[in-house]
Write a structure and sequence with these properties.
This protein is an alpha+beta fold. The protein is about 40% helix and about 25% strand. A six-stranded antiparallel β-sheet has the order 3-2-1-6-5-4, sandwiched between helices. Strands 7-9-10-8-13-14 form a six-stranded mixed β-sheet, sandwiched between helices. Strand 5 and strand 6 (about 125-135) form a beta hairpin.
């Protein structure tokens, strides 16, 4: 990445600002938007680094993601994702700004100036921006606040297009994009090659494998017919909330429509993923839902290899789910285990399948 052009703080030409805004708002992927946002600010302002934090969905996960753009000695930049579960600076400072909804302007231990701006929507923080520079950042505070407002408005539009309106989980439309991202990480991990800065995302985990699980609420039509669609929707909403609280931060959750959910998760082996999914199944069946009482779920899952197509792995997990439905429901089954035991047909090679 070539060294950026900088204008003295306070006299940035309007054309340069507009070009930066146009650059980071052309993305349709939130992670790519975050990377472009921190790079745009780093190119505009003489900083040591720019950090962007997105707030998590629950108190258990106060931070969903953190991406930082740092200046290299040669004047270029490197962009990387940080582990959002770590403690200490910069995460504690970002969380503080999100909690108080107040900007922070101070001096760090190494003498750098620091400016933290909460990103707010409807009096709630959805994230925070942090800049560190050798000189005072007071003159650029209004510009950074403007970028935060633009980012907030734009990310709301992206969320609306890729999230389910009832549950807030990712929708089916965003599934292939998220799966491709995880497959990219898995390919890099299998080759022991670090991805480029623009491709860095939350780590899948050393020696981990990817799995796709399909979760279906048992006898959901009976719930709607007995209690009405309002209570049926409440079951779906509460189940989604329990999924957020129960699964790990790196797991990706989708509502595929109706009573069907999809989970992308990493595990060391099939035994671990089965344990994680069965633990959630047991939690659901022990939980009493308002008015409806106890419900159960059936889950089928399959391993994702780096060369899989989304349609192929969905079909495998769906076969395992169908087996669970046909064999008593309220259970968890894996495609690979069922195939080894001869309870499903042998897998079909990719070369013999026509994809439409």
């Amino acid at each position: 990445m070539k060294a950026p052009w900088h204008s003295p703080v306070g006299i940035l030409p309007e054309s340069r600002l507009l070009a930066s805004v146009a650059e980071f708002t052309h993305h349709r992927d939130i992670d790519a938007l975050d990377h472009s946002m921190v790079l745009s600010l780093a190119e505009l302002i003489a900083v040591n680094n720019v950090t962007l934090c997105r707030r998590g969905d629950s108190p258990r996960h106060p931070v969903d993601s953190i991406v930082v753009c740092s200046r290299k000695p040669d004047g270029g930049f490197v962009i990387e994702a940080l582990d959002p579960t770590l403690d200490g600076d910069p995460i504690d400072t970002l969380v503080c700004a999100m909690a108080t909804l107040e900007a922070i302007s101070d001096i760090t231990d190494d003498g750098s100036s620091r400016l933290v701006i909460p990103i707010q929507r409807e009096h709630t923080a959805i994230g925070a921006l942090m800049l560190e520079a050798p000189d005072s950042l007071d003159d650029v505070r209004s510009m950074v606040e403007g970028f935060a407002r633009i980012y907030c408005n734009y990310i709301a539009l992206l969320n609306e297009s890729e999230r389910d309106k009832l549950t807030g989980l990712y929708n089916r439309r965003s599934f292939e994009q998220r799966l491709r991202r995880l497959l990219t990480l898995q390919r890099h991990a299998s080759r022991d090659v670090a991805p480029d800065a623009e491709e860095k995302r939350r780590p899948v985990g050393e020696n981990s494998q990817l799995y796709l699980a399909i979760l279906d609420i048992d006898h959901f039509k009976r719930i709607n017919d007995t209690y009405g669609h309002v209570y049926g929707d409440e079951v779906i909403l509460m189940l989604a909330q329990h999924m957020r609280a129960s699964f790990r931060q790196g797991d990706v959750l989708f509502r595929f429509g109706g009573e069907e959910f999809v989970i992308l998760l990493a595990a060391q082996d099939e035994a671990e993923v089965h344990l994680v999914l069965d633990r959630f199944r047991r939690f659901v069946v022990d939980h009493a839902f308002p008015q409806v009482g106890h419900v159960s779920v059936s889950i089928g899952y399959a391993r994702i290899t780096e060369h899989d197509y989304p349609e192929i792995v969905l079909d495998r997990a769906d076969k395992a789910l169908y087996f669970a439905k046909q064999n008593g429901r309220n259970s968890v089954h894996g495609y690979e285990s069922l195939t080894r035991r001869g309870e499903l047909a042998a897998p079909v090679s990719l070369g013999s399948i026509d994809l439409f």
